[in-house]
Amino acid sequence: MTIDNEDLINSIIASLGRINTISLDEMPNIDLYMDQLTTFMDERLKKTTRHPETDKILTKTMINNYAKNDLLPPPVRKKYSKDHLILLIFIYYLKNILSINDIQTLIDPLKERFHMSDDELNLSKIYNTAYELQSEALEPVIEDLKKKYARSLETFDDDSLSDDEKKRMQMFSFIVELSYDVYVKKLLIEKILDNVVTEKESQKAKDKARDKGKDKGKDKK
């Protein structure tokens, strides 16, 4: 392993530059058939995969499974709207770190805004906000990666190690730092979603108890 600090950082920045989410303006303004939808996603997101030559972005089976798991509303006359596309883009990124159940919890409120008008908080407006947040987050992420890599170069500075061994161990330190960062953030997301589920279940229990109380009142009359 003979990569130096500057080469590594440049490589990281280049890879992050390939994670360009599709902007709202780039989305088709017409409804798409299944094949058109998968082709569009494949063309626009291929560079975000680890193995662009072989990795699949979206398949018919995936879309059907999302529908079965209640992540995606059914198409209208076999056509998928821009709102379908927005949900599929969210799902594409989220599925790399979250379970299907967690994704369902997260996007349930979005499905309630499916096909809302432009004068309401619709999916297009929600997507634009997420797109802006992602754009703003890129530079801080790059700076954090630089700091983590610089810190990793301070580890395993042992004269008993060869230069190649030092580089391998320092790369190990860098990966451990990144992995812990991902672990903590994933844990935070899961805890937040668990709380959302708990609140929903609590509200359902309250509603059920209230309805029972109303039924008892009717019976007495």
Layout of helices and strands, plus pairs?
Elements: H1 5-17, E1 32-33, H2 34-45, H3 60-68, E2 79-80, H4 82-94, H5 100-111, H6 123-152, H7 163-220
Antiparallel strand pairs: 1-2
Structural class: mainly alpha
**Unreliable sequence segments:** none
Main-sheet strand order equals 1-2
Inertia-based shape:
globular
The rounded distance between the terminal residues' Cα atoms is 82 Å
Tally of individual helices: 7
Largest sheet: 2 strands, antiparallel
Beta content: under 5%
Question: What's the rounded overall pLDDT mean?
Answer: 88
The strand count comes to 2
SSE pattern: HEHHEHHHH
Q: How much helix is in the residues?
A: 55-70%
What's the alpha carbon Rg, rounded to whole Å?
23 Å
What do these coordinates show?
There is one protein chain. The protein has helices spanning 5-17, 34-45, 60-68, 82-94, 100-111, 123-152, 163-220, and strands at 32-33, 79-80. It has 221 residues and is an all-alpha fold. Helix 4 runs antiparallel to helix 5 (100-111). The longest helix is centred in the last third of the chain and has 58 residues, at 163-220.
Considering the chains and any ligands shown, give keywords for the structure.
globular; 221 residues; mainly alpha; two-stranded antiparallel ribbon
Q: Can you summarize this structure?
A:
The protein has 221 residues and is mostly helical. It contains seven helices and two strands; from the N terminus they run αβααβαααα. The radius of gyration is 23 Å and the shape is globular.
